[in-house]
């Protein structure tokens, strides 16, 4: 297939090196003054799109479009994707008040609207975001579009309009074949994302970035679920020592373990 257009999802998440804390209101985790970065699985998705373009050539892969749904600061992650090699970016800007309540179904609906506008042949998303670990957006998007899907991909091959995806399962490897257009979600072992070089970071500033709002796309992102409260896990108590096997058996009996 010539003129292949690839849409890649990019999500702004708390950096994986940060120790997450619950906010004072017990409504969510603390995000103020916390380092954020591009979701690692989405980095893998961007890298794979770039590798497909390098492998198949610019005559086959027409362009790579990075898209995110999030607050204004999410543009930082789009610029990272552009610096890695995406051709242009789309930002569906969600207000700071609405973003914490944005759920996978809402994101899938926004992405569906972008797909209908841009007409890509392939959508590649990270299998999950490391903040909510929902692992739902790709599957919901495929359902809304009525497209075939291949989740948790560890290898991707495209030949014309045919797509072959290898994925890891409990018993070994599973190979899925489908036709384009399709939705793919990426697993950890698919590739090792490249670092954005300084010249490419500078070039990324000049690459086009288009903004939309959910209202522009006529998409309702009202949450279907409500978070009642968020609390830290209980502190684990330290273990104890016993002097003999008899003492161990006695303690186990008193604890109801025997």
Automatic annotation (TrEMBL):
<keyword id="KW-0496">Mitochondrion</keyword>
<comment type="subunit">
    <text>Heterodimer of an alpha and a beta subunit.</text>
</comment>
<dbReference type="GO" id="GO:0009055">
    <property type="term" value="F:electron transfer activity"/>
</dbReference>
<dbReference type="GO" id="GO:0005759">
    <property type="term" value="C:mitochondrial matrix"/>
</dbReference>
<dbReference type="InterPro" id="IPR033948">
    <property type="entry name" value="ETF_beta_N"/>
</dbReference>
<dbReference type="GO" id="GO:0033539">
    <property type="term" value="P:fatty acid beta-oxidation using acyl-CoA dehydrogenase"/>
</dbReference>
<keyword id="KW-0249">Electron transport</keyword>
<dbReference type="InterPro" id="IPR012255">
    <property type="entry name" value="ETF_b"/>
</dbReference>
<dbReference type="GO" id="GO:0009063">
    <property type="term" value="P:amino acid catabolic process"/>
</dbReference>
<dbReference type="Pfam" id="PF01012">
    <property type="entry name" value="ETF"/>
</dbReference>
<comment type="function">
    <text>The electron transfer flavoprotein serves as a specific electron acceptor for several dehydrogenases, including five acyl-CoA dehydrogenases, glutaryl-CoA and sarcosine dehydrogenase. It transfers the electrons to the main mitochondrial respiratory chain via ETF-ubiquinone oxidoreductase (ETF dehydrogenase).</text>
</comment>
<feature type="domain" description="Electron transfer flavoprotein alpha/beta-subunit N-terminal">
    <location>
        <begin position="26"/>
        <end position="221"/>
    </location>
</feature>
<protein>
    <recommendedName>
        <fullName>Probable electron transfer flavoprotein subunit beta</fullName>
    </recommendedName>
</protein>
<dbReference type="InterPro" id="IPR000049">
    <property type="entry name" value="ET-Flavoprotein_bsu_CS"/>
</dbReference>
<keyword id="KW-0813">Transport</keyword>
<dbReference type="InterPro" id="IPR014729">
    <property type="entry name" value="Rossmann-like_a/b/a_fold"/>
</dbReference>
<comment type="similarity">
    <text>Belongs to the ETF beta-subunit/FixA family.</text>
</comment>
<dbReference type="InterPro" id="IPR014730">
    <property type="entry name" value="ETF_a/b_N"/>
</dbReference>
